[in-house]
Amino acid sequence: MNPAFDLLITGAHLATMTGDAPYGIVRDGAVAIVGDRIAWVGAVRDLPPDAHAHRRLDVPGAWATPGLIDCHTHLVYAGNRANEFEARLHGATYADIAAGGGGINATVGATREAGDDELVAASRPRLEALAAEGVTTVEIKSGYGLDTATECRLLHAARRVAAEVGVDVRTTLLAAHAVPGEFAGRADDYIDLVCRETIPAVAGAGLADAVDAFCETVGFTAAQTRRVFATAGAHGLRVKLHADQLSDMEGAALAAEFGALSADHLEYTNEAGVAALRRAGTVAVLLPGAFYALRENRAPPVAALRAHGVPMAIATDCNPGTSPATSLLLMLNMACTLFRLTPEEALAGVTRHAARALALGDRGTLAAGQRADVALWDIVTPAELAYRIGGNPCAGIVRAGRLMTGRSP
Ligand code: DI6
Ligand code: FE
């Protein structure tokens, strides 16, 4: 046999994120790719002696990790809310801002007015910033349309911007994000519309991979969330939940009850909720950017999540209100500094566990058979990815076997 690889990466140390050893490290490793798949991973010295490759990428001293996965973003929207940020620093409260038509509904207004091209153009720099840091898969939620037509437009725009930037995307319908102005005081009527019209339309058109909801005192009740989830299930869609971000709504248990892919935020989740997540196999997605921006002081129950063996993912929550963040690496640092995750847990949170939060079994590790999504880094140790505050050590990206950027061989 004379294995022929399309692309052979050599010289790098590998953080494979497999097995029990920290980071699944292989020193002086090689990753061999055929088509869009990883064909072989191991130490260079173990490469089959007669192996040859059409293309070689030798990156001496670099590190290779799985391509990063940002599993929770709201990055498609128009406008921004820097004015609210500034108003709050001049003493305005969230209530003042909401009463003046601000908050989520301000972004809904700007988004409804934007044309499709404008929406894609506004969103593209945000996804480009993520991609430049080695993100090869992103989840994008709707939720700034809040009517069926605009929610569909947002999901279309999400796929379009991802195709333009060259990042793989999973889309999530978040029609139950806020009560739109025209339904003010009639949240149940809005949920009727979501269940009767929006979910069936989106499911029928195949526009979303999952359905999400914002279960919160300022969002939707548990009963309303249950209706959304039951409808999603009836249409064959898995669910995710913004759970227990600002108060304990027993959101984690609710997510678990519906076999959610993930329960996200979780600052106020109690231990019974954590145990329920474990039983349901639901991933805990931690969002330190929103915690930071809201100057929260209650961190998610990381010790309990660890003790119960609930996989923890990390994401940007990129949105114009509570996390205007476009750096997943910064979130790694914040997850360690603010939530006390270890750098290894943080990296697992944007690779293996983030893949699971999106039900993507074919990525998030460097292993034979996985999708060939690889990020290359100019770093000396993998902990450096979480250690830095700013800066981008990404030295190259392979997405589905194709070298997107980086040093030439
Ligand atoms: N939780 C949040 O923190 C954001 N959405 C959500 O469900 C807020 C989004 C915004 O303010 O635009
Ligand atoms: Fe969010």
Please describe what this structure looks like:
With 409 residues, the chain is of the alpha/beta class. The protein has 15 helices and 18 strands. Strands 8-9-10-11-12-13-14-15 form an eight-stranded parallel beta sheet. Helix 5 crosses helix 6 and helix 6 packs parallel to helix 7. The two termini are 26 Å apart. The model has no long low-confidence stretch (mean pLDDT 96). The structure holds 3-[(4S)-2,5-dioxoimidazolidin-4-yl]propanoic acid and fe (iii) ion. Fe (iii) ion binds next to loops. The site of 3-[(4S)-2,5-dioxoimidazolidin-4-yl]propanoic acid (DI6) has 12 residues, from helix 3.
Give the N-to-C terminal Cα separation.
26 Å
Structural class assignment: alpha/beta
Provide the gyration radius in Å.
21 Å
Average pLDDT for all residues: 96
Report low-confidence residues grouped into runs of 5 or more: none
* β-strand number: 18
Strand content: 15-25%
Question: How much helix is in the residues?
Answer: 25-40%
- The general outline is globular
For the largest sheet, list the strands in their spatial order: 8-9-10-11-12-13-14-15
Sheet with the most strands, sense and barrel status: 8 strands, parallel
Unique bound compounds: 3-[(4S)-2,5-dioxoimidazolidin-4-yl]propanoic acid, fe (iii) ion
Helix count, per DSSP?
Answer: 15
